Amino acid sequence: MIEIRPAVAADVEQILEFIRELARYERLEHEVVATTANLRESLFGAHPFAEVVFACRQGEAVGFALFFHNFSTFKGQPGIYLEDLYVKPHMRGQGIGRQLLRHLARLAIERRCARLEWAVLEWNAPSIAFYRNLGAQPMQDWRIFRLTGEPLEQLATSEAGAALSLNER
Fold this sequence. Notes:
It contains five helices and five strands; from the N terminus they run βααβββαβαα. It is an alpha+beta fold. The chain has one domain: Aminopeptidase. The protein has a five-stranded mixed β-sheet with strand order 1-2-3-4-5, with helices on both faces. Helix 1 crosses helix 2. The longest helix is centred in the middle third of the chain and has 15 residues. It is globular.
């Protein structure tokens, strides 16, 4: 029996451990700089930016999902963006990932969201097959772009128009 429960501030160390486990699986552990302090503030502070739910078996957290709201201007409605979904390796194949996604789908419906979406690494064939089996479709015509670190800071501090390339003028 799996119970889905929302995380509370006392769970922040467990959340960080799940993030690290997911990063190891995705071969991205070197990118994890999150700390319990910034997770506590970001998830449970005065203005929470995301939510976490755990999948628990006999009181032990065996999976988690971290998600937040986005917004579709075309639909005029919010959506839920799933940032992380992870099930411990020894618990995979038991429907826990499906239960976490079902929980998020129900939240999306309750919150009158137009969609539930996420990204998946191209090499992650097992996850892609799992998502397709649920009826999820890849967004073929879309690419994710990201600004982080120095390029983000440069854009934020640049004068309007000063950093435009020839292609942008």
